[in-house]
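Fold Annotation — chain and its backbone
Encoding — discrete vocabulary of local shapes
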Amino acid sequence: MVDDAAIQSLEDALNALVDDSDFREIDRRLARFNLFEAMGGVRAELRHSNFLAFLFSPGRAHGLGPLVLEKVLRAILSDLPTDKRPLRTLELVVADLDDALVYRERQNIDLLIELTALNLVILIENKVGASAGDGQLERYKAALAARYPHHRRLMVFLTPNGDEPDCEGFVAFSYQNLARVLEQLAAETSTPSEASLILTHYVEMLRRHVVPDDELKDLARRLYEKHREAFDFVFEARPQLQGLLETLKACALNVVGLEEDSTGANLVRFYPSRWERFGVLKCPSQKWSKTGRGLLFETMVYADGSAHLALILGPCAPDVRAHILERCKASAAFKGISKRKGEITSRLFHRELLSPELARTTDFDQQLRLASLSWSSFQGEDLMALIGEIEAFAEEIENTGSPRSTGPTEALENES
């Protein structure tokens, strides 16, 4: 039993934490409205690329002319040895960049910039959350050389931490450096107030979600050292990820015909019982699932509070895997299909059930409700089509050995 003195000590510790100026500064910076968060543009690569294309285009209505493009290019060049630069920095500084042409998704390239005055073309491959696909950078390099054989070329691999590209000729540039350049530009007195505000919002969003905010981390470390007792108590009292996982597990197992395969610390795997009749959907138990099932739905809850649902294809027989992957790629039902890099499994379907933003900005009861609603939406929109098509693919392999048309499967209904 906790005595009154201990309770009073803990209450005093919590009060001291709330009154601390560092705590109030962290709360102010994290709670402040952000335009890009409101628009859902946190880790969406397309939206980042669209915004950067807007900033880099001298003629767009941001009032900065070619200044953003010039400063970012100077930052990229400064990271390169002199002999690796396609042009001297002085050439860039004195050049007229007003004629810059900025293209989005030309030949699938995220950003392509033509600078006629410098006979220079710039390719920027933007990766916020994913890595480059196998051979992707090589293909873009070849496409650029074919389209601009007589131009000087600068190929940039833009990632949160400046990851090294796997293709010779590309140079690494980080969102951390990009944030620093834009922050300096926003602070300049010559920058129009509207542009300064937009740049500030973008940099704040980057530091909250894409790159580490070292200053904020220092504040947090200092705060923890001063108020360790209060933080430890708050940490122990936080809503557990397991509660969200259990809720999603109940959603899945409340569907007639769905059975549990296994449960881990942050995931639950389940499967339609009708798939048990297909021997081709089995895999060696020592290679992936201990149950030997080679195709499973998987619900995962991550440390940031977000929740995701996926359909995972394990290490079945190579010809079975190849057939299923080929058929899935040709079907609109399989959204988010990708191979896990360096692993023997492939993701055939992906759906976010609770975003990191909602996990951060809603209370625990709201999170449970939102995740449950997302599951219901998945069940109504996707589950039946996925089950039916997988059954059709398995029957093709086991019965005919050749593709045939697929049709709807009978409905799975909620238990009343």
User: Anything to note?
Assistant: The chain has two domains: 35-214, 241-400. Residues 35-214 form one domain. Confidence is low (pLDDT under 50) at residues 402-416.
